[in-house]
Write a sequence for this structure.
């Protein structure tokens, strides 16, 4: 998996044209080169898809929205002016599209499974089955708690804590001020903590 | 005792700020001092740290679907608006 803290390493994800810089790919994409656009955006495709899975909790919907995100990015690429990084811009489109998809849902938030089994805790020692069971249970509890958060709070905790992005970048992607973002993040953590319970967290945390 | 309860309520609401490093030194000292005497808040700090640690980095190894650029390809070069 690519680095989660800070921006991804662009050099790590262009296997076919290692010499192609993000700037040159962007220039070509803005000139209408679909191949360059795919190379550029493909560098972030896995992370973007994982973000959508976390926000939507539904693989089929995440696949549909991921296609839409790429289409929107392609349609808007000539308007991208590098005021933010391409990654941030793409993620912001993804968050907007995820929110649009969530808004269309007639289902209640509780029906949205965020994929509790996919929120992986660091693997406990294999020789400790009791700890493994505790971590698995904590993982499920955290997944349920995240799924029940309102989308703005879920987005905050996913960007900052799950994805490990900086507060500044997360706020930019979420489209709010850093102060507003932090307020959402703190609210989200308090709600998740209340839902999971200190006992489960402290026991699993050692 | 009223001071303890006020500190307790305040600390419980600021555990996330604490682990995020968002508290000013004086506020951080207030929570540190209270947590030394309060089992719930000391445990709350550990619980919040575990929460932040536990949710980080899930879904490793998931790949984007091969179809992710299908709509871009369908739109073609004219679809970029440029």
């Amino acid at each position: 998996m690519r680095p989660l803290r800070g921006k991804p390493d662009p050099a790590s994800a262009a296997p076919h044209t290692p010499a192609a810089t993000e700037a040159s790919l962007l220039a070509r994409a803005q000139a209408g080169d679909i191949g360059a656009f795919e190379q550029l955006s493909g560098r972030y495709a896995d992370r973007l898809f994982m973000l959508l899975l976390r926000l939507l909790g539904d693989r089929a919907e995440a696949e549909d929205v991921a296609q839409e995100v790429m289409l929107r990015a392609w349609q808007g690429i000539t308007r991208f002016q590098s005021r933010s990084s391409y990654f941030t811009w793409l993620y912001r489109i993804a968050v907007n599209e995820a929110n649009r998809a969530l808004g269309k849902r007639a289902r209640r938030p509780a029906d949205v499974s965020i994929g509790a089994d996919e929120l992986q805790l660091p693997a406990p020692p294999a020789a400790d089955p009791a700890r493994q069971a505790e971590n698995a249970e904590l993982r499920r509890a955290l997944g349920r708690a995240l799924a029940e958060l309102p989308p703005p709070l879920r987005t905050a905790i996913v960007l900052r804590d799950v994805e490990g992005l900086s507060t500044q970048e997360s706020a930019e992607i979420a489209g709010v001020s850093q102060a507003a973002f932090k307020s959402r993040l703190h609210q989200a953590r308090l709600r998740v903590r209340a839902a999971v319970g200190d006992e489960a967290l402290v026991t699993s945390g050692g | 005792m009223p001071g303890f309860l006020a500190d307790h309520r305040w600390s419980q609401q600021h555990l996330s700020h604490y682990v995020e490093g968002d508290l000013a030194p004086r506020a951080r000292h207030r929570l540190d001092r209270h947590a030394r005497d309060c089992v719930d808040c000391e445990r709350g700090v550990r619980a919040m740290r575990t929460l932040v640690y536990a949710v980080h980095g899930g879904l490793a190894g998931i790949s984007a679907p091969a179809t992710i650029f299908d709509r871009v390809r369908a739109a073609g070069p004219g679809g970029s608006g440029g």
